[in-house]
Each structure stands twice: as C-alpha cells, then as structure tokens.
Amino acid sequence: MRLAFLGTPEMAVPALRALVAAGHEIVLVVTRADRRRGRGSGLTPSPVKAAALELGLPVTHEIDDLLAIGADRRPELGVVVAYGRIIKPHVLDALPMINVHFSLLPRWRGAAPVERALLAGDVETGVCIMAVEEGLDTGPVFARQAVPIAATTTADELRGVLVEVGTALLVDVLSRPLPEPVVQSGQPTYAEKIAPGELELDWHRSAVELDRWIRVGGAWTTFRDKRLKVHAGTPTTEPGRPGFLAADGATVGTGDGSLRLGVVQPEGKAAMSWADFANGAHPTPGERFGPPPRRAPHTASESPNC
Question: Are the beta carbons of 137 and 184 closer than 8 angstroms?
Fold first, then answer.
C-alpha cells in the first residue's frame, strides 16, 4: 500500500521500519519539529525523523502537507503510532487513518495507557489497531491482542513487549484488505498524562502502590533534604511507620506494609544499590524520607498575645 506514517518517539520506530521491510511505500512521514536539547546545543530530530532519513523517506513537520500530495502519489491510508498531536478533522476527512494504541480499548484511552494500566494493578493490557476518529481513541477496532502484566513488570519492559506485539499486529492487518472494524464496547477509562508531581512517593500510600509508581519510572523522594530517585524496591507486609527507616536499615514504612529499597540514585550521581548508598551515607534507623509533616496553623487561642 501507499502509506503516510505519523509518529514521534523511539517506540514508533519499529513500526516504521517493519512497514518498509514488508514492502509498503511510505509516501510521507509526519513527526514533530526538531527540538533543542540543552543550552547552546543544536536541534535534535525526533527518533522517527532520524529513522525516516536513514531509510531515505521524505519527512515533514506539518500534517497539512499530506493534503498537498498529488493524486498520483496520494497515500491510501495513514498509520499513526505515538504521534503525540491531535489530528484535525479536515485531515481525517481527506485521508483515512489507523492507530496502534497500546491498551485494550475502551480501557485506557488517552496519553499514558501503559503507565495507567500498571498503576491500576491491571493483570493484562494489550494493543488495538483502531480507526482514527475525531474523538479521543473512540474509533472501532480492526484487531487486538492481549498482553499479561506480571507483578514485577516495569513500564519500560511492558512498553517493549507492546511495541513488539503491536508492530507484528500492524504488519499482519495491512497484509490484506482491512477487516470490518468492531465498535468498542464496555466502560471507558482515561489515561491522563503522568504529571511530574505524581512521581514523588507519598509514604502514606501502601507499599504495593508505591512499588507500582517505582515501576512506572522516575519515582523520587527526599532524604536529608535532597532528592533521591528510587529505581527499584520490594513491597513487604511488615508494618512500619510511614516514611521512616526501619531497624534493618533498608526498609521504609508505608501506609500499609513497608518498602525494601533496592536501587536508588542520589542527586548528581549514578544509580546504585541501596547497600552501596548506605555504605556512604550511613543512614540510621528512624530517619525520615520525604518532606516533614506540615504543622497545623495556629488557632486564635494559640496565638501569642500582642
């Protein structure tokens, strides 16, 4: 087929390469504009743009360029994989599109389906090849495949499996005429983008919940007034005082159970085991992680006399 490809991050690159390898003609690749990384550095292309240029494919940052392609070269279908931008109705009216969505729709429509499935404790997620509509991930589904989520799976690991499954499913769907899509059924849930503030560990949550946030990636707390990233930990049922280091020197109490710290990363340093960190920092049982509790405001009766 003659295809347009719309994508941006690294997780979209395998699909682009697989479509080319399967013999499809990629008429145009649409991706985000180059970005500057770091002060004084040059512009950096998106991973999809870098791959497209390597493959000798034409690239644009403007989606309306799809509408300017001549009739003899016009794509039959647009393929969307983690494009990251809303596709406007006038483009969809001109070119039908399918999307590789990394969840079992209608569960986890939206920007962060992998992370939200993990945070919710879902035991499975999957991939859907769906028609793109004006609504947020509301289109009917051409094909789907479930993927299990283990109790120790990280978001990076899950994302890698989903990309592999989704790429194979996409190539299979496009190897023949598109089947009749099935309208989504069931109660929708929405996967909002992870806000930076959500990644700060709240030690009054349960150990199981905190472990999920750690497995999403980027979780952090504070220790001795400095940020400490937590890359790995193990939830336990041992009771503990939320946010305080236990007597074993490696476990922090939570709202329900405790979390044994595995891999941490102090500010300005590389990731290391908790044992290595402890050898240098010498934490003592009873030390606090996270911000100190806020003091209640003075009441009028508690205010000093003027």
Answer: no
Long-range contacts from 225-228, C-beta under 8 angstroms, 24+ separation: 226/266, 226/267, 227/267, 228/264, 228/265, 228/266, 228/267, 228/289
Strand partners, 101: 128
Beta strands in 102-216 (DSSP E): 109-110, 124-131, 141-148, 190-191
Residue 138 and residue 171 in contact, taking contact as beta carbons nearer than 8 Å: no
Look at residues 100, 90, 70, 88 and name the one whose alpha carbon lies nearest to residue 5: 100
Distance between CA 3 and CA 129 in Å, rounded? 15
Amino acid at 50: A
**Residue 42, token pair as written in the block:** 């040059």
C-alpha distances (whole Å) from 131 to each of 83, 97, 190 are 14, 6, 18
pTM: 0.91
CB-CB neighbours of 81 under 10 Å: 26
Q: Is 48 helix (H, G, I), strand (E, B) or coil?
A: helix
* Eight-state DSSP code of residue 218: -
List residues bridging with 273 in a β-sheet. 263
Q: Does residue 196 have a cis peptide bond before it, meaning omega lies within 30 degrees of 0?
A: no
DSSP symbol at 121: T
Measured in residues, the chain has a length of: 306
Instruction: Encode pLDDT of 128-177 as tens digits.
Output: 999 999 999 999 999 999 999 999 999 999 999 999 999 999 999 999 99
Nearest to 158 by CA among 215, 111, 200, 211: 215
- Of the given ranges (12-26, 38-52, 82-96, 177-191), which has the lowest mean pLDDT? 38-52
Of 258, 254, 205, nearest in space to 234 by CA = 258
Q: Which two tokens stand for residue 167?
A: 């790429």
